[in-house]
Amino acid sequence: MDMQISASFKKEMLAFLRTKKLLILICVFIGTALLYPLLIKMMSSMMELMPEDIGVSAQFAESVSNGVYLAVSSLQGVGIIVFLLVINSFAGGEQKRRSIIIPNSSGLRAVGYLLPKFIIYPLSVFFMAVLGGMAAWGISLTLFDVHDLGADAVLLSSVLTGVHLMFYTCLHLTIGTATGQAGMSAAICIGVSMLLPTIFMGAGIEAAYNPFALDIMSLAVIIAGKGNAEIIPTILIALGIMATLYFLALFAQNARKIDNMGNEIAL
Fold first, then answer.
1. Cβ neighbour number for residue 91 with a 10 Å cutoff
2. pLDDT tens-digit series, residues 72-96
3. Domain spans in the chain, listed from the N-terminal domain onward
4. 196 contacts 50 by C-beta, under 8 angstroms
5. Which of 124, 132, 127, 126 is nearest to 34 (CA)?
6. Can you tell me the distance from the alpha carbon of 147 to that of 140, in angstroms, rounded to the nearest whole number?
7. Gyration radius from the chain CA atoms
8. What angle do CA 6, 246, 261 make, to 5 degrees?
9. Where do runs of H (alpha helix) occur along the chain?
10. What is the distance between the alpha carbons of residues 98 and 90, in angstroms, rounded to a whole number?
11. How far apart are CA 248 and CA 229, in angstroms?
12. CA atoms of 69 and 76, how far apart (whole Å)
């Protein structure tokens, strides 16, 4: 590996670890995954104290599939918001602070600046999503008597959620590093991730082969208890778009010129 890229990987990882952002994100993902099965158990216990004619809401039915469904759904919502905001300083935020000028002046190439970001952060959020999904399944098995969801379906759903979060992380890195406006980039990505599922469902658009609907496909796996033939092609399409986003960010970074004489970074 190129020595500059190797040094950039080390710098990026140290920054991620020493700022305790990685630890914070792991705690958020695992905490969110464990919270919803516990919440179902608590609400079900409360409803058991109510008159029998009221019954127990289906939303709080004590089953493994229900616990995992709510946990994974929350990871797709809360997880993406927290992750994108926490990595803001790595997704172009350093450009706003002008701390990238000296490394660039010392010969830092665009590939050395971008490649570690597009590997470390997407892979980190992927493994957090998988870990969170499996943690939700594990605690649901402990809490609930209805074991209606197998490990293979949970793992597949968690992988789809992980790829979904990777997709928006790459989009955030592309917009943020290309513009130097990490806050704006995070807002765009979060807004798009929240609006698109509603638009797709309202318009009746299928999730198959649609990388923007990986979250819907992930939840469908939990409901059905199994996957389908469209999953692998959809993941491959998403990975292809992520690679394209990296090259777009690389092109934008190479095209930028920093004016050290002014007060702002020139785009």
1. 29
2. 999 999 999 999 999 988 887 776 6
3. 3-255
4. no
5. 132
6. 8
7. 21
8. 75
9. 3-18, 21-48, 64-74, 80-86, 93-96, 101-105, 110-143, 151-179, 182-203, 214-224, 231-255
10. 13
11. 30
12. 11
